[in-house]
C-alpha cells in the first residue's frame, strides 16, 4: 500500500476510534436525518419503504436524527443476515434433499458460490462503513448486488424452487442497503 493511502486509512481509523467513544457511529461529512427521512429518500415504492422501516427498526430513538452511517450499517447487516440464512438453506438442500433435480442442484451449488463472494463484498461494505471510508464503497455494494442477482436469475429459471422467495428478498434488501448507502454521497 502506498504511504499516502496508508496514512489516509490510518486517519480514518483513528477518527472512527474517537467517534466510537460516543454513543453511536458518526462519520465526518455524513448527513444526519431521522429514520423516516432516510427511508423516504431511499425508497421509490411502498414495498421498499416498508422494507426500509423494517431494516432500520432496531435503531434506537428513531424520531431523532442519526448519522446516515448508522442506517447504512443497519441495512447492510440486515441484508447480510438474510443472505447468510439463504446460503445455509441452499447448502442444506444440496446436502440433504434427495429429491432435487439436477438442474436445481446445479443452480443451488452455483448460488452457494456466488453467495460466498457476495458475503465477502458485503463484509467489505461493513468494514469500510466502520472506518468511515467511502473509497470503493459503491463498487463493493455493486459487486455484492451483482452476485445476488446472478443467483436470483438462475433460480428464476427453475420451474419451482423453495429458495425463490428468499433470493428475491436478499436481492431487494441488498439493493435497499445500497440506496441507503448512497445517502452518504457515494
Ligand atoms: C426438497 O426439494 C424439493 C424440490 O425442490 C422441494 O419441493 C422440497 O420442498 C424440498 N424439501 C425440503 C425439506 O426442503
Ligand atoms: C432527503 O430528502 C429530503 C426531503 O426531500 C431532502 O431535503 C434531503 O436533502 C435529502 N437528503 C439526502 C441526503 O438525500
UniProtKB/TrEMBL annotation:
Q: What is this protein called?
A: Pectinesterase inhibitor domain-containing protein
Q: Which UniProt keywords apply?
A: Signal
Naturally occurring in which organism (per UniProt)? Oryza meyeriana var. granulata
List the signal peptide residues: 1-21
SUPFAM superfamilies, sorted: Plant invertase/pectin methylesterase inhibitor (SSF101148)
- Determine if Cytoplasm is one of this entry's keywords: no
Keyword Acyltransferase in annotation: no
Amino acid at each position: 500500500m502506498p504511504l499516502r493511502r496508508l496514512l489516509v486509512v490510518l486517519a480514518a481509523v483513528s477518527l472512527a476510534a474517537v467517534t466510537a467513544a460516543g454513543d453511536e457511529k458518526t462519520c465526518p461529512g455524513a448527513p444526519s436525518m431521522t429514520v423516516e427521512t432516510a427511508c423516504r429518500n431511499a425508497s421509490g415504492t411502498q414495498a421498499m419503504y416498508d422494507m426500509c422501516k423494517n431494516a432500520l427498526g432496531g435503531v434506537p430513538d428513531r424520531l431523532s436524527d442519526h448519522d446516515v452511517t448508522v442506517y447504512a450499517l443497519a441495512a447492510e447487516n440486515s441484508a447480510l443476515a438474510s443472505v447468510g440464512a439463504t446460503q445455509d438453506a441452499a447448502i442444506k438442500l444440496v446436502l440433504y434433499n434427495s429429491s432435487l433435480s439436477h438442474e436445481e442442484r446445479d443452480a443451488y451449488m452455483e448460488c452457494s458460490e456466488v453467495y460466498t463472494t457476495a458475503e465477502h463484498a458485503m463484509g467489505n461494505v461493513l468494514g469500510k462503513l466502520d472506518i468511515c471510508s467511502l473509497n470503493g464503497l459503491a463498487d463493493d455494494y455493486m459487486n455484492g448486488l451483482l452476485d445476488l442477482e446472478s443467483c436470483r436469475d438462475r433460480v428464476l429459471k427453475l420451474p419451482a424452487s423453495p429458495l425463490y422467495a428468499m433470493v428475491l428478498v436478499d436481492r431487494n434488501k441488498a439493493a435497499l442497503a445500497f440506496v441507503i448507502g448512497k445517502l452518504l454521497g457515494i
